[in-house]
Fold this sequence. Notes:
The chain is α/β, with parallel strands linked by helices. 36% of the residues lie in helices and 13% in strands. The strands form three sheets. It has an eight-stranded mixed β-sheet, sandwiched between helices. Strands 7-6-11 form a three-stranded antiparallel β-sheet, with no helix packed on it. The protein has a three-stranded antiparallel β-sheet with strand order 10-12-14. The radius of gyration is 23 Å and the shape is flat. GO terms for molecular function: dTDP-4-amino-4,6-dideoxy-D-glucose transaminase activity; pyridoxal phosphate binding. Its cofactor is pyridoxal 5'-phosphate.
Amino acid sequence: MKNNIKNKKKILGMVANFCHSRKEVFIPGKSEIPYAGRVYDEKELINLVDASLDFWLTAGRYAKKFEQKLAGFLGVRYCLLTNSGSSANLLAVSALTSPLLKDRRLKPGDEVITTACGFPTTVNPIIQNNLVPVFIDVNLGTYNILTNRIEKAISKKTKAIFIAHTLGNPVCLDDVVSIARKHNLWLIEDNCDSLGSKYKGKYTGTFGDISTCSFYPAHHITTGEGGALLTDNPLLKRIIMSFRDWGRDCWCEPGCDNTCGKRFSWKVGKLPFGYDHKYIYSHIGYNLKITDMQAAIGVAQIKKLPSFIKARRKNFRYLYHYFEKYRNFFILPEWLKDAEPSWFGFPLLVKEDASFTRSEIVNHLEKHKIATRMLFGGNLIKQPAYENIQYRVYGSLKNTDFVMNNLFWLGVYPGITDEKLRYIFKITDNFFINHKTL
């Protein structure tokens, strides 16, 4: 036993030395500036190797700790880890179809209000559960749902609202929460791009019945792949866990038995009395759990989250001040006075009367190794995957189409140093000089 402890310390020390020996060197014009990426040090690698040495290949001690840390950070009662933010969205919508919710359960044909301007896996779970998305346009500047249209879009079939805080920019939650409560609608927050954002001093991801996070490398913290669901509702927590863990009725953690104290004393459905509770299934579920090695990375990452948020805000602020001189050509990002965004990216919307196109400036930046991104799927109903889905649109999607054709965004993640920002500014200035737009 003593030798094992000694050997582990030696291994982890070697891991730290290995990490310290790796240093990034930025060479302007030759090194790429990605829109996002992993920011880590020896602590993540040490945790990862420590978890691997346990060889506990499913969720374990690190997963439990990560769930506690994330729930504590946001001030939510329950956190359930899953294998991606997209899976988190799927579980969130699927949970609301549970018979355990009785009259409030979502049934095929029910409507969910959302936007077509965003990432596919906010909308996909609605379709995958045989529900009908109702699309509302977005505001130019914030790129969030037009909240003044939500109540007008509600029909007798409307049962839920599913909104994302676009690029970390909080939606007007006063409006959304008020409407959801007034009409007894479920509210799901897709908080995948917004971890650490606040609205009126309260973290986004704490306003809805369920919220979701993503830990993909592009996001605020990473576990490689990974995601989470958060809720204050004990029944929803139980349902989400069931859908995540094969649909089983049992709520034992991996490797544990008889948490309920009556494992062989249940009588459920048409099963015989005493059938093993670990093999009783109350939902048609999935297996979407995370591994402990992924969670181990998350435990180290979440300690860095406050500094990551600070760095993102700083980079956003520098980009905003720089692009102010070009505001004749761009609609610059906007945010609500009550919002404190933890920015995922810096959006730039090329104006209709600009003397250049989005393609021209994007190609210029990409040619010089500065990564750009569109606002995800643009107008999703114009994507080939959605040609034959059932949906409803309230009003027009004029702004969504404009965003699809004219918006791009730059990264603000903590790996973008002041040196990289200066290079971005230089290359952008060159674009305007060469196009004689000033």
